[in-house]
Amino acid sequence: MNLPSIKRDRRFAFVSASAVSVWAVWGGSEELWSRAALELRRRGAAVAARTDWAPQEPSRVRVLREAGCAVSVEPPLRLGRRLIDRLLKRPRSFKVRRWLLGTAPDLVVISQGAFYDSLGAAEASRRAGIRYCLIAQAAMDGAWPLDERRAVVRDAYRNAAACFFVSRANLDVVANICGFELPQAEVVRNPFNVDYDASPSWPAPNTELKLACVARLDPSAKGQDLLFRVLAAEKWRHRQVCVDLYGAGPMEEGLRGLAAYLGLRSIRFKGQSNDMAELWSHYEALVLPSRVEGLPLALVEAMLCGRPAIVTAVAGNAEVVEDGLTGFVAAAPTVKLLDDALERAWQNRGLLQETGVRAAKRIRELVPRNPAAEFADRLEKLAA
Q1: Is 174 in contact with 158 (CB distance < 8 Å)?
Q2: How many domains does the chain have?
Q3: For residue 136, is it within any domain?
Q4: Are 71 and 93 in the same domain?
């Protein structure tokens, strides 16, 4: 697919390796590349994008198309195509390389959910002689690749024009896995889905502590099962605590089953919400018991809305939440440590509003008003 002909000569290609086709939703990890692509298009650049197939086209993809971006969708890889590619000895990156040669961008931006997704696109870019940069939305200490795969990771990051991470902790994990410094790496922030100046009203005084857990329903990453097990303890059963879960995901039935098995009356499943400021007008704090993160949008949005957070010290969580000052941090994603952090929040529940004021101030020191525009600036410099 050829890029549209425009006066300005800067040309960008975005490759997204996401979980859209798996979760059938548009995840937070898609916001940075898609909004930066839209910003570059508004500035007059030619923009192409290649995304994973999804059962229903996400609205953000339609917005990109309407703005004049050339968007290609990677279809599901069927058995017949896999056999043909194997017979012809084509690498998985063959189609991406062919697409890149057709679009001829100045820079390829490869957006990854985890730090090792779509490294074939990096190899395709290198073989096509096109500069590329990597975005890693998450990196996990326990996700060490086998040596053969590690060699691919090392090559991809060593040859990148830039490597972008959403938290310093993620950057350090990848540097440790690669076994060398990443001098071309830097930390960037994701766009968020709440007004930067949001200031929702504090909930009316109530004897019940109302918490919201805003996250994909995926305990392997988001750790909701840890929270359930904490709330199953006898002391929490006798306290007035309500935790509402917002989000969708492939493990909702499993979580509902666990809540029923544990006999939890303090947990409610509320589905998706598209108005974060309105949501936070009903809750006093966020609880996010994550096992794996980059820097969750839900945390940034809660803090922008003046709500403290109870989080695990995973990836960027502890980089923005100061324990006892702007929230409460569990040193690791375990039942005991999460219980300790939740207990501190309970004992200080009369000070949560004051804690939220400090959280709102702190997050504005760390996250800019328009992260997508700032990221677009970086990409323009790389493409120059």
Answers
A1: no
A2: 2
A3: yes
A4: yes
| Domain span holding position 177 | 11-191+369-383
pLDDT of residue 203: 95
C-alpha dihedral over 90, 93, 95, 100, to 10 degrees? -140
Q: What is the pLDDT of residues 129-159, one digit of tens each?
A: 999 999 999 988 878 899 999 999 999 999 9
- Burial grade of 300 (CB within 10 A; 0-12, 13-18, 19 or more): buried
**Same-domain status, 82 and 222:** no
Give residue 16's Cα distance to chain centre: 13
DSSP H helical ranges for the chain: 20-23, 31-42, 59-66, 79-87, 94-103, 119-128, 147-158, 168-178, 219-222, 224-231, 234-237, 252-262, 276-280, 297-304, 317-320, 335-347, 352-366, 371-383
Which segments in the chain show pLDDT lower than 70? 1-9, 18-26, 53-55, 75-93
C-alpha 276/C-alpha 337 separation (Å) is: 28
Same domain, 124 and 181: yes
Quick count: other Cβ atoms within 10 Å of Cβ 371? 20
The whole-number pLDDT of residue 27 equals 73
